[in-house]
Amino acid sequence: MAFARKKGLKYLAAILLLAPTMAMAHSAGPPAAHPQGSGIHADGTYADPKTWSEESFPGAIHHGDRGFFMSTFSGQAGATWYFPAKGQSNSHWIWAGEHAGTFANPKDQTEITKVGLIHKGAAGFYVSRFDGVPDPAWTFPPKGSSDSHWTWMGEHMGTSSDPKTWSEPTMIGLFHHDDVKGFFRAKFNGVAGPTWYYPKKGESNSHWAAAGTHAGDFLDPKDANEPTFVGAIHGRGTIARFLSKHDGVPGPADTYPRYEEGEYENAWWRTLATQCPATPGTRSQAPEQPTARAVSAYAQSLNIIQRQAKTSGSLALTASPLMARGGMGEYRVDSADLLDTRGDKRGSLIVVVLPKGGYEAISDVPGARGSVLGAADGSAHFVAEPVTDWTAQDTPPQQNPDASNTQASADGPDVDCEGKRIIDVLAGFSEVAVSDMGGLDHASAYALAQIETANVGLRNSHVDARLRLTAVEVIAENYAVNTENLGRMPTVFADQIKKHHADLLATFFSPASGETATAWAVVDGRYEIGKITSTTAYRHEVGHNAGGSHCNTGQDSYAFGFKHPHGTSTLGTFLCDNDLPFYSTPLEHDAEGHALGDAKTADMARVWRERANKMSSYEKAEKPVEGTIP
Asked: Which domains are delineated in the chain?
């Protein structure tokens, strides 16, 4: 019986290199300071590429938003030596393809390649036997076959999360699995000989090295004594998850960090998350439920927005059950999907109950987009969101978009107990904005609800990342929302960003003279500035932070939002207009079968998945994530 289970949430590229280093015995000393995949891109290879601004050498591989490029120079790129357009070369950079050519990120059949790089087709993986651009006639051979251009490498990646079967072609260090005997790593290249059987469970031989019983990912973490590899997830039997920094069999002294005492990392392990279930697939405690006050606020808000939507002539919506979504300190956020008569998700209702009474709710439904503000005396009223042209320019021009790749730290992303990448956001307000909103309680609730507007889209679009509000800070000056002040925000909030270890900064101000848009954001950056009068702008702007743009008008890129026909009009996802509660994705369809994205022209869910590591790595969290962020 072949190894079969749902693939886990994987973010550690270290285990997916072309030929992982084997270290089958207990290592005699601490691991290297910067193992591959750690974020220190010193190699300049496809598996570990440099960023645009790192020092280079001829032949070094660099990576940016446009793809991979090979350097022609030594030293650091000149100030104007930008990467050329996708698929193009210039005197400083030679186009090297869109994909890395690893099992984790294989090239396609037509992509420029090198000997030994991995490609993928309908029949599985293939290794290139040539350098250059494939001739159109050099199609992949059938499953199980090789030719002078391609060597078939099986249907599985050979990672612990997608191990090969015994008979598949392999490479030194790749993982294989047997349902009874567990995991093994190959000690050879090619196909196993007819008598090269797996040894007994937990044993090794000249062809196979025992690699433990568990996969070493978040769905199937290893225990403390299992053979490990750089990037493996351990913690089975504990309420924490640990990242392995070494290969081999852990020794008696290679103990987990004492995270309860504030030691989150040692030479062998890094603590990734705490308050996790000791048995994967179960819960460490009962799931959080909305409070009675939240349920009451939800019912009141729903009644108000349904009346508002009916008055505006909008379609009737069905409410889903209210779900707890976490929070910050004493502020908790709950939300529910709102469905149309066909069962399509058309919006959401987000509720944050204030500690001292009252609540702040954000309604995202046709005909009733805005806020429901609940008072401590039980009264509530609706405030409509101003009409906004979501396709108007709201990002400053970028002279060199690849320069921002240098910002991420080497510590790697913060993750929760399920492996979701957690991106910490600092919310900044002016004193005037806080006053106009009714006080700090309302401002804090508004900030938490704004974070949830983006998380609704990430959740609906199947992205394994979440935003987390880390703090709210208030400054004296009320800045007009324009590009000049957007550029000031990193300096204005510099101390607060460091204090709260924030990856992103979201700032909100009252309307002021000199404003030029509802909000502005840096594409593939960390900063946003917006007006408190908008309830749905932030989810749109943080999509720009992730690297996305509005509607694709013919560009060769998938970093765009998406529109699809809806009767006599169209409906758009968060960046291409702002109608549907999704980031564009071809994986979701409406009841009529319309996809909500396109794999080549509009797949913001993919952009989020690809950028989440970097977005979560701008600042290292003060301590590991606790529990799971829904």
From this structure: 1-35+157-285 (no CATH), 292-384 (no CATH), 402-548+611-626 (3.40.390.10)
Q: What are phi and psi of 26, to 5 degrees?
A: -60, 125
For residue 162, is pLDDT > 70? yes
Between the two ends of the chain, the Cα-to-Cα distance in Å is 34
Under the phi-then-psi rule, with left for phi > 0, alpha for psi from -120 to 50, and beta for the rest, what region is 588? beta
Cβ contacts of 29 within 8 Å, gap of 6 or more? none
**CA pair distance 535, 323, nearest whole angstrom:** 20
CB 189 within 8 A of CB 202: no
**pLDDT at residue 281, rounded to an integer:** 72
- Tell me what pLDDT residue 568 has: 58
With H, G, I as helix, E, B as strand and everything else as coil, classify residue 303.
helix
Q: Which residue has tokens 């797996």?
A: 198
Go through 16-35 and write b for each residue having 16 or more CB atoms within 10 A of its CB, e for each that does not. Answer: bbbebeebeeebeeebeeeb
Least confident of 5-14, 339-348, 381-390: 5-14
* DSSP output for 525-588: SSEEEEETT-SSHHHHHHHHHTT-EEE-SS-S-S-EE-EEEETTEEEE-SSSSS-SSS--EEEE
Helices of type H across 388-502: 431-437, 440-460, 483-492, 494-500
What's the whole-number mean pLDDT along residues 165-192?
97
Q: Do the Cβ atoms of 463 and 605 come closer than 8 Å?
A: yes
HSE-up of residue 165 (Cα within 13 Å, Cβ side): 8
- In total, the chain counts a number of residues equal to 630
**Average pLDDT score over residue span 288-307:** 95
Q: Choose among 577, 580, 576, 569: nearest CA to 345.
A: 580
Record the pTM. Answer: 0.89
- C-alpha to C-alpha distance for 375 and 394, rounded to whole angstroms: 34
More confident site: 160 or 591: 160
Q: Bin 57: left if φ > 0, else alpha if -120 < ψ < 50, else beta.
A: beta
- pLDDT of residue 557 exceeding 60, the answer is yes
Percentages (nearest 5) of helix, strand, coil residues in the chain: 15, 25, 60
